[in-house]
Amino acid sequence: MLVLEAQLLLAASPTVVAILLLDRDPSNLPLFVLALLPLLTFNLVHLDAVDGGAAMRPATLMLAGLLVAWSGHMVVLTAGFRFRTRDAARIALAGLLPRWSFTLGVVALTVVAAFVVVAASEVLFLLLLWAFVGLFALMARPVFDDSRARFTVPD
Prior knowledge:
mainly alpha
């Protein structure tokens, strides 16, 4: 067990180092998610090595999609407002269903980005990153306006 634990810690050490180097600021949330991506991806790819792992793939993919959508809402809230992190997390979670079009848009942008990276290359994705950010900003306007109207005091 100790050998397995040491191997797990060694494999996760780049993620742990990246997380420890990030400042405790809400704007670092996307970087935190990116740092965790290798561990979520590794687990998803190797589900067949575990008994019953194939049955867990749909649930894992749904959970990953939910986390991506929640992170998209969190990015809008933390970039546009000065909410406490826990308040932004609650508002983002509460906005997943009422703002279903933005939620679906975030998941769709993620799927398209993954397809571009897998089918073409990372270079093409980086060249098209401006389009992804522009679409994200366009889709985020209703979420931003709704959050400003409901959760802030007017000037």
